[in-house]
Amino acid sequence: MSEQGESPKGESTVTVVLAGSVNLAIAILKAIAGVLTGSGALLSEAAHSVADTMTEILLLTALRRSSKPADLVHPFGYGKERYFWSLLAAVSIFASGAMFSFYEGFSTVFGEPEEQENPIVGYVVLAIAFVLESISWLQAMRQVRRESGEQERSIAQYLRLVDDPAPKSVFFEDSAALIGLVLAFLGLLLHQLTGSSLYDGLASILIGLLLAVVAWSLGLTNLRLLIGRQADPVVVRGIRELLRDAPEIEAVVDLQTMLLGTDLILVCARVDFDDSLHVADVERACVRLAGELRERYPDVSEVFIEPVPRTDPDLRAAVLARYGEAATRYGGQQ
What is the CATH topology of the domain spanning 8-226? Predict the structure, then answer.
């Protein structure tokens, strides 16, 4: 969730642009070093950086297109388009980075032994790449730490619940990049010390596994957001309490929320109003409660409140079928 007066989209854009610029420069350096040294691990790292560069381009597309205003065809806006392009970015990491790394690794391990040339060039490039990647990683970490602090969560909790895939993607990519550079260094060093290219190939395979894990994690995150994940549980509980405490409402029968995009929440509530209220009273209460929800939680963009009787057996059965016994504790939100 964002706070008023801040621009999470702007910081996400800075994070993505910085990461993309760094990755493009590093990809060129690694490719040159890989050719000069004959190191499969360095070539795998070059593919890794190319994949990361493509990822940043897709993330920039996600940031731009998801900010389009709502229209007649898409009345809830284009917020979820951010998750689609971010999902493609995760696929890109696997297709462009992991698969090439596996190819280089298995080719080196099971192919003809290769002579190592100019290892010093590889070490220099890896050192430069580590410094540049650290700059990008620190920017991503700064954003993650600030936003997790605002939400009073640990970094792990923040990354699990975040509704903006851009900082998480860059943070995971840059973390994987730093680990990959260490693996490439070890492969290069062991190849030089032993004269066996086996270690270089094993480093490439490990880099491929690392990228596959990152791609799977990011892909799963965006899949859940794309198909409609509920809002932050803390926000859901707050919404339920606000509705429950309203004098016009006797019971919150069902409460559903969905993320329409980054910092965009849809709220659908079925509530049992006091039977003594007139139609006009119910209308005014709905308008007031929608305003109070938006004031307390600025991310709430759409509110639908439906009057229903809490004793309706079909509705109760539907809620219990959807959420089980947890519905009695969280009002249909797990």
Answer: Alpha-lytic protease prodomain-like (1.20.1510)
Query: How do residues 173-191 score in pLDDT, each as one tens digit?
Result: 889 889 989 998 999 899 8
pLDDT at 9: 56
Task: Please say whether the beta carbons of 11 and 143 come within 8 A.
Answer: yes
What's the pLDDT tens digit per position in 35-53? 888 777 788 888 878 877 8
- How far apart are alpha carbons 7 and 212 in whole angstroms? 32
The span from the CA of 127 to the CA of 139, in Å, is: 19
**13 pLDDT more than 90:** no
Its pTM stands at: 0.77
CATH code matching the domain that covers 233-330, chosen among 3.30.70.1350, 3.40.50.2300, 3.40.50.1820, 1.20.1300.10: 3.30.70.1350
What is the pLDDT, as a whole number, of residue 143? 86
Ramachandran quadrant class, 254 (left: phi over 0; alpha: psi -120 to 50; beta: rest): beta
- Whole-number Å distance between alpha carbons of 148 and 13: 18
| Mean pLDDT of the residues in the chain | 85
Question: Between β-strands 264-273 and 300-307, what pairing exists: parallel, antiparallel or unpaired?
Answer: parallel
> CA–CA separation, 235 vs 313, rounded Å?
28
* Degrees, nearest 5: CA angle 130-132-137: 85
**What would the DSSP string read from start to end of 153-210?**
--HHHHHHH-S-HHHHHHHHHHHHHHHHHHHHHHHHHHHHHH--THHHHHHHHHHHHH
